[in-house]
Design goal:
about 200 residues, mainly alpha, two-stranded antiparallel ribbon, 2 strands, disordered N terminus
Amino acid sequence: MTKTLIIESGLGGAPMNRTQKAIIDAFWQLLEEKPYNKITVQSIVERCQVNRNTFYYHFQDIPSLTEHSIKDWTERVIKNNCEFGAPIQCITLVVQEFIRRKSAFIHLYRSSHKEGFIRCMNEISQYIVQSYVDKTTEGMSIAAEDKAAFIRYYKCTIAGVALDWLDSGASYDLSAFCKKICNSFEGSGKRAFLKLMQGA
């Protein structure tokens, strides 16, 4: 079978071809519409108009497609949304992505791939907080263990809020809630850094 034209970069810089992208897009569309355990290879290939052999050429099964799709999404969120300025700029863009795919993420969170999805949420949150901390503490004398503790605390806060939102069935305004977290970055967070620096 001849591979199709490469059109963009996939996970970890590996190339993604047009057919892979079509399969992944179809998977996300179906995940918006129905629970994970209701999605079949047949429904995916019918949605993106390829045959079953083509699906299995690119992915071993639906779980492998799911893992690839989640990791690819995580990489793209970080690459496209996490050019860091103020925390609110980065987190707002990530929240918009969550809201855009709300139903799909709720279905993933309630599926057998919950743990892998949570790992990706932690990865995104880690990147956001690490970027903020590196920028804010530049030139400060802060012990590595104190800095690491601060990063872990806020990483868990952001990831925890996202997962709580999904656990609640997206029942509250995630954007407004995250703005409050960002205010803590700019207020109490910065004061905490100064306190650590003074105590060093």
